[in-house]
Amino acid sequence: MAQSVGWGILGTARIATRVGAAINRAEHSTLQAIGSRNADRAADWANEHGAMRSYDSYEAVLDDPQVDAVYIPLPPSMHHEWTLKAVARGKHVLCEKPLAATVADAEEMAAASREYGVQLMDGVMWLHHPRAADMQRLIRGGRLGELRRLTSAFSFRWATIPTGDLRLNRQLGGGSLLDLGWYCVGAALWALEDMPTHVVGHATWYKDVDMNFSGTMWYENGAVASFDTAFDTVMRRWLEVAGTESSLVCDDFTRPYSEEKVRCWIHNPDGASDEHKSDSPNQETCMIGNFNRLVLSGKTDEHWPSIAVQTQRICDALDRSARSRRPVDLL
Asked: Which residues touch 242 (CB under 8 Å, ≥6 apart)?
């Protein structure tokens, strides 16, 4: 069995810098290659961020025999094409979220990964941090009682709207729902461990893209999950899971504001609260480490593509609800 996972990155997007650093930090991984459609940009990126080789195409990264896994930070509209090309060459794929621009694309990507026996995972980093496991133990431990409500928010504000940003282009998979709501919908699946029966979405639009979004999801057992996202509201990234007895609150669930102060709280009905601290490794490094262990084990974990496809299905239903101004059933 190989002792190290050789990584390639398709594209020099800003997030690739963060994930590339995590590949270099994590155990059992080497950053073998970076590919860009611009040879000079790829070479400069490799020199600055420690990739062993640079290529002037994405195809060349996939053809590199030293590359076992690829990270895809391309626009969502390109995830489907390059994931299918990667898995057909036997490469494991860590794909930036959202997994795809459409449900059909996401389902085909997951099916292809199963066909070729490789791991597919979306790049939701917070789920790999020790705090996520700590919070789930608190949720499952019974202290909250029966789960009734999950509420979350993820937003930031552009001082000036960047009209050329891919997040404002529907054809590229833009919108606050797919960019930010992906985390909130995923958090509902993580906490409630079930698909909703129906959803309702509301949005305000910039051209054909949601500038901000509010979504509500109803569940068979009576639980409700709601969230809001925005490109025009102050930075927020909080989560509350409320039960019949207590609630769990995390004020920075998508990324700790400080890696030295990673925590959540349990709030009791009498107003008392308990702070729960977690270990504080870098969450990108945790994600790469978990991915490496899966690859080196020789096994794949179906949980990751399945949860990504479920997230895509819910986001698609929410988008359809907002555009039609009607509830959408998921049964």
From this structure: 144, 147, 148, 149, 150, 151, 248
Q: Which of the 8 DSSP states describes residue 179?
A: I
Which pair of structure tokens corresponds to residue 298?
């020789």
Q: Which pTM was predicted?
A: 0.96
Q: What is the pLDDT of residues 166-192, one digit of tens each?
A: 999 999 999 999 999 999 999 999 999
Q: How far, in Å, CA of 155 to CA of 123, rounded?
A: 18
What domains are there in the chain, each with its CATH number? 5-125 (3.40.50.720), 129-285+313-329 (3.30.360.10)
Structure tokens given for 289: 């480490």
Residues of the chain with pLDDT under 50: 1
How many whole angstroms separate alpha carbon 317 and alpha carbon 326? Answer: 10
Task: Give the DSSP letter of residue 178.
Answer: I
Which regions of the chain does DSSP assign to beta strands (E)?
5-10, 29-35, 53-55, 69-72, 92-95, 120-122, 147-157, 198-206, 209-218, 224-230, 232-243, 247-250, 263-267, 273-277, 328-329
SS3 content of the chain, % helix, strand, coil (to 5): 40, 30, 30
